[in-house]
Amino acid sequence: MSEGAAPVLVVCTGNTCRSPMMERLLAHRLAEQGVDARVTSAGTHALRGAPMTEDAGLALDGLGVDWQPHHAEQLTDAAIEGAGLVLTATRDHRALVVSQVPSAVGRVFTMREFARVAGAVEAGAGGTGGPGADAAPNATGFAPFIAAVARARGLHPPADPADDDLADPIGRPLDAYEAAARLIDDAARTIAGRLAAGRPASARHPVERADAG
């Protein structure tokens, strides 16, 4: 991965359903945009080594996204501290991540929240300052834009706070997984497009994806 690339960590509860879909779809859309960013995933209450649910895989298949065997990983302080951007499934997950590593507050968003606010932030925005702007030296290529999104999040509230969450489809029919995958893909397309628009020259390479589980 090139210097300036931004590691992205995606988080849900068990790391067997939502976050694996988030990981694969975001990596896929970033690759389409030529954005060099490593995408990993973890769960706040994961059973280490558990596979992705079958229906999550089927939902990814339905969107034409290739995926490799998945093994769940538990969220750690080190994973949070090493990420340039942390995207969670829900506001509760976001709160858990921030409570675990308070210094990451400016780099932690729900996935749908980041897509919504990033879509309203001018490409190339950034500059110094703002919460979390210097918290991840290994993500300096995208840190200014991420900091700009953090500063703008209060200016672009959702119509309903729950709109920033991804409902858990676990235990529900396949169509619930497919609906979740479509919402994730919509957010992934927006995020990839915004990061591509604001990326530094050093990050203009194919994406590298490595499973955290």
TrEMBL record:
InterPro entries: LMW_PTPase, Ptyr_pPase, Ptyr_pPase_sf
GO molecular function: protein tyrosine phosphatase activity
Residue stretches making up the Phosphotyrosine protein phosphatase I domain: 6-194
Highest taxon in the source lineage: Bacteria
PANTHER family, sorted: LOW MOLECULAR WEIGHT PROTEIN TYROSINE PHOSPHATASE, LOW MOLECULAR WEIGHT PROTEIN-TYROSINE-PHOSPHATASE ETP-RELATED
Name of this chain's protein: Low molecular weight phosphatase family protein
